[in-house]
What we know:
The chain has 154 residues and is an alpha+beta fold.
Amino acid sequence: MNASPTSSMLRALPAEHGERLKHVAREVSFPQGTRLFEEGRRADRFWIVRTGTVALDMRVPGRRAAVIETVGHNELVGWSWLFGPHTWHLGAEATSPVRAYEFDADVVRGMCQADPALGMAVGQWVGDIVARRLRSARTRLLDMYAPYGSGSLR
Length: 154
């Protein structure tokens, strides 16, 4: 594994926690068009993207899945593994060839339970990502549907 394989995670977590997680990561790759997971199915792993892009999408009855966000280099793919009932809230598809670091959710959750400081750090890291993505989704929805100027945050 490279010296800083999961640099976004390592920057967000205290050094000792990031190093521990780095040791349970495995390198994986996905060809373009690969479905990493499907909405509603069991969330049993997560990834940090090294190269390529992954579209996060949501099923829309009678239509193609709607892309909610596209994530890339050093970004987290998947947060549903951390929060019960551990089922995916979205789907994900590689929109280009992807190389990533994959983490087994059971292993990481077990590490977090055994070490409350690690658990709090991981929860904060993932929570910050979820909050940022929700703000981004809100802004995109306001841009699409709200009258001009109504989306400003004060």
